[in-house]
Amino acid sequence: MLSVTFVRHGETVANVGRIIQGHSHGELTERGISMAEHLGRHLSEEKFTRVFSSDLKRCHDTTRHILKHSSDGDVPEDLIVLDQVLREVSHTHGELTERGISMAEHLGRHLSEEKFTRVFSSDLKRCHDTTLHILKQSKDADVQEDCIVLDQILREMFCGDLEHQPQSEMFKLFNQTGLHFPHVQIPGGESFQDVKARTEKFFNMLCNLVDAKEGREENVLVVTHGAWLMCFLHCLVDLKKNEAIDLIDFEEKFCSMPAHNTATTKMTINKQADNGRRKVVVKQVHATDHLPEDLK
């Protein structure tokens, strides 16, 4: 069985300015760092076996702030996988605000008891920064900064012509086309279906870990982006409809719920059953109980 905790990166400067970040790296605000630190303390007892992050800086920094609160000491950087599949809708990196940093630190403290076996993050800076702020709260000595996997598969949706533009430009596009997300196609950007295909690729990779011959229990941390998470939840619904998975304790209304900065989504993924399906049990969606009221 594999347990996985998905995290949205901490608040960034662009979040505060309502700027579309996409594949830009982004900088955490002080608030964003605090968010990641809170989460790191919250997860400090988790024993993560793997850590995945979007390769963008806002996710990587969030991951580092989370892992530094591990109860067993500092987290090696090579545990973090920076993955482009975890990237955001917009590919700008982004900077965490002070509030975003605070969010990530709150989440790190909240998760400080978690024992993650792997950590994945979007490779965009706003996710990487969030991951770092979370992990620095970890109490697990085996989870070090150098074990974060920064992966482009975790990147946010690419917003093409709207990269670095005010969010109001997105609403202008909605008015011009008469379509809204996820149905609108952004000029020069990725579609909702493009990103959903990336999320399914990542889900299949997690399933491969579950089915690996060694069969060890995995506890995975993944730091990524808001729209990526929305696409991932839609992907799970599609897999359920196609009878590839049994999706337990999940309601379709979760797909339209926005993810707050450093919100956590937890689930377990089991080995494939004799009927060809695997059970996915959802524990929580976009939880923010690690944050104090002034950061929610």
UniProtKB/TrEMBL annotation:
<dbReference type="GO" id="GO:0004331">
    <property type="term" value="F:fructose-2,6-bisphosphate 2-phosphatase activity"/>
</dbReference>
<dbReference type="GO" id="GO:0045820">
    <property type="term" value="P:negative regulation of glycolytic process"/>
</dbReference>
<protein>
    <submittedName>
        <fullName>Fructose-2,6-bisphosphatase TIGAR</fullName>
    </submittedName>
</protein>
<dbReference type="GO" id="GO:0043456">
    <property type="term" value="P:regulation of pentose-phosphate shunt"/>
</dbReference>
<dbReference type="InterPro" id="IPR013078">
    <property type="entry name" value="His_Pase_superF_clade-1"/>
</dbReference>
<dbReference type="GO" id="GO:0005829">
    <property type="term" value="C:cytosol"/>
</dbReference>
<dbReference type="InterPro" id="IPR029033">
    <property type="entry name" value="His_PPase_superfam"/>
</dbReference>
<feature type="binding site">
    <location>
        <begin position="8"/>
        <end position="15"/>
    </location>
    <ligand>
        <name>substrate</name>
    </ligand>
</feature>
<dbReference type="InterPro" id="IPR051695">
    <property type="entry name" value="Phosphoglycerate_Mutase"/>
</dbReference>
<keyword id="KW-0378">Hydrolase</keyword>
<dbReference type="Pfam" id="PF00300">
    <property type="entry name" value="His_Phos_1"/>
</dbReference>
<feature type="binding site">
    <location>
        <position position="58"/>
    </location>
    <ligand>
        <name>substrate</name>
    </ligand>
</feature>
